[in-house]
Amino acid sequence: MNEIQELYREVILDHNRHPRNFGEIEDADRVVEGINPLCGDRITLYLRLNKGNVEDITFNGTGCAISVASSSLMTDKVKGTSVSDSLDLFDKIHRLLTDENDYQAEDLDKLAALSGVRQYPTRVKCASLAWHALKTALTGSETNTSTE
Ligand code: FES
Q: Which of ligand 1's atoms lies nearest the C-alpha of 39?
């Protein structure tokens, strides 16, 4: 394992062991459940919006280390940013997780740690679970989303 891979691994382990923004928001504007049908794991995302910004965002539920770490990293990055920047970030992460041309975004910071799952298709669904829930929460009226 090279230095970068080791760093990515540490980021994932840290966010799995100590998930940021774990819990509920009682007065949430949006509550969306994300389900990975492959394993049945699910997370629930809570958002409070204010003037076009994601004022607060939390998650809870159960999932594997990758899905918990990805949810934690996502909420950490999105909290306090605008809805449109959050949707741009969704697109970047989607490319990071799926683009065969080894897409790397310099401004992703710790989120780049998620690129390690790209070569494992089943893990891509784990990593994208929270992100699909985010997109649903920001764009749709639905309250459930699935990685299928
Ligand atoms: Fe269920 Fe990863 S194995 S979300």
A: 1
Helix (H) or strand (E) segment spanning residue 48: strand 41-50
Query: Which residues, including other chains, have CB under 8 Å from residue 50's CB and lie 6 or more apart?
Result: none
Instruction: Assign a CATH topology to domain 2-146.
Output: Sufe protein. Chain: A (3.90.1010)
Per-residue pLDDT tens digits for 82-94: 999 999 999 999 9
Q: Which protein residue has the closest C-alpha to ligand 1 atom 4?
A: 126
* Nearest atom in ligand 1 to 65's CA: 2
**How much distance in Å is there from the Cα of 52 to the middle of ligand 1?**
31
- The whole-model pTM stands at 0.92
Percentage of the chain with pLDDT > 70? 89
Query: Domain limits of the chain?
Result: 2-146
- Tell me the per-residue pLDDT of 16-33, one tens digit each, with 9 for 90 and over: 999 999 999 999 999 999
Degrees to nearest 5, angle at CA 6 with 20 and 41: 45
